[in-house]
Amino acid sequence: MELESITLDHYRNYSDLTLDFSSGVNVFLGENAQGKTNLLESIYVLALARSHRTSSDKDLIQWQEKEATISGRVKRSISETPLSLHFSNKGKKARVNHLEQSKLSQYIGQLNVILFAPEDLELVKGSPNVRRRFIDMEFGQMNPLYLYNTTQYRRILRERNAYLKRLQLKQTTDTVFLDVLSEQLVDVGAQILLARQDFLNKLEVAAQPIHAEISDHRESLKLRYLSAINFEPGSDLESVKKEFKDTLLKQQSREIMQGSTMIGPHRDELQFDVNGNNVAVFGSQGQQRTTALAIKLAEIDLMQHETGEYPVLLLDDVLSELDSSRQTHLLLAIQDKVQTFITAPTLNDIARQLIQKPRVFHVKQGVIKLESDEIE
């Protein structure tokens, strides 16, 4: 899979921009605050219909403009597909092959991307919400049913929390409707739990040899899914539903007191263990970065295995955050495998030696100019 071209109209600091890309490595060089990250963000948004930098679509529209459009052409092994997203004060419209999609779950997955930015190093040591979002965003690209279920779960959760708040404030004493909402939450939530566990099992298998190689075979990596709902990997759906329902019932009085749903996939956690220890707590910064890098590289192969196509890789100013050894592992791993977009102020000697025939662009004040097909 590759992104052949992109067009931006009134997106961030780009009034009118069209670029054609190489199927290999595309490098965007420039100082900070010139628009490099905005460009990579636009590719991410084109793929996932949302930004990784803001929760408000209005932030994507150029200052003093009322609407913005991102469009691009995606090439797969057997087809080419035009995609577009239009943002306005009325919301966003997604189109595939020029046909508007009624649900975003029908749009997402047309272009698969993996983003690796400095903040992704927080995947290991950041808040649990960072890791939950990581699972949902990455697995959602591979599995439309999972994406649909997470959307449904959030809707039911909002409704259940609102009703719990009413019970907390004694605006009602009727728990029958709460039981209905709990059943709905369990039905969808149990599917999410099993899907997450399956995804993490596959990710662990893909990440372990990469992690071992980067660490010179001195370290071993394990992924652990931590949930208040006690279920074993490989459990059947009905047994997970029963466990989820029983656990909710035990927590019901506490949830009414708190006015909030206290357990479920929205509260679960992902833990990375290196040599048997939680690397977020007991690991060095180097171990944490090795783990994050191994996970990101493992995603590339896992996504190819699950979808039949390699994703597009976005490296946003991340090379400067990695030491020479990890930079080398990263650049060798992507060589001749995935279409890659790299932003950086400059390219260091390692990158210049390992990146083969990149298409180099220079970015300055929202203007992007193609340098050449090769670094001189």
Could you walk me through the main structural features you see in this protein, from its secondary elements to its overall organization?
The protein has 376 residues and is an alpha/beta fold. It has two domains: 1-112 and 309-376, Rossmann fold (3-Layer(aba) Sandwich), CATH 3.40.50.300; 126-307, Up-down Bundle (Glutathione S-transferase Yfyf (Class Pi), Chain A, domain 2). Helices cover 44% and strands 23% of the residues. The chain is built from eleven helices and 15 strands. It has helices at 36-48, 104-107, 122-125, 128-142, 144-168, 176-214, 237-258, 279-282, 285-307, 324-334, 349-354; strands at 2-11, 14-20, 25-29, 67-75, 80-88, 91-96, 99-100, 113-116, 221-226, 269-274, 277-278, 312-316, 340-344, 359-364, 367-372. α5 (144-168) packs across α6 (176-214). The mean pLDDT is 92. Its main location: cytoplasm. It is found in: Cytoplasm. Residues 3-367 form the RecF/RecN/SMC N-terminal domain.
